[in-house]
User: Fold this.
Amino acid sequence: MSLNKDLTIIFVSYYSKKLIEKPLEKINNDIKVLVVENSADLTVKQDLESKYPNVKVIIPKENTGNGGGINVGLNLVNTKYAFYLDIDTLPDNTTISELYAYANKIKNFSILGPSVNGFKYKEEFYNKKNTMNKVHSMNFMTGCALFFNMEVIKKIGFFDQNIFLYYEENDLYLRCLRQNKPIYLIDDAKIDHLGNSSSDKKFKHEIEVNRNWHLMWSTFYFHKKHYGLIKAYEKTLFKFLSAIAKFLFYSLINQKEKRLIYFSRISGIFNAMLGKKSWYRPKINKL
Assistant:
């Protein structure tokens, strides 16, 4: 067994040229890295591939979203394991080696997750604590860093392509657990996660509008898919009415940015209720 031969690391980037080099510097240059660049920015490909010999940048034909971007990478993986990392994560010097060691100990798993520094899981997120020493069987883990058992995940299926953003990991976890393929949190593997910092700050407002639209659409879609239409309405109807009220309020006091945020929430839920696809994309044309 060899970590360098058994592992491929995946990033999904969207106008993240200024941010991605920080996590790349934490990765040994003999581990294969795939960067899926959803912005179609060719300079990212040129710059990264010239600087890092172990990095290959893939430019999809369209913005695939987060789960779809990971799928692009997973479909190119020919190693035993794959490790997805958000752009705004920073593994420490032993994160990858610890996950690899536990992957070879546990074997019957679908996904492993490192412990995020400063993040505390709610009790309901645990399925069973300490199934092994410092290893916990989980119902949910944060999706910022996911270590995949490729043999298992290929059988279960990758991320739901209908979901552009939010709930993509919830959907995948649920499918793994329903097929008795556990997900585990590894205490000995540590990682930092900055959170909501994966794109250039100059696009902050448009990215926020995009996030709000997809959070609402995906909330309805996920609950309808797995628990039925009534549950989907239970989860979103109050949010829908609240967004309408706030949209009207911010329209009245002429706060354009807040008004757009709440209009995006209304639109996201309404489109999901109508059964429409997750169509909204950030309105960003160039750097």
In short: The two ends are 43 Å apart (CA to CA). The first strand starts at residue 7 and ends at 13.
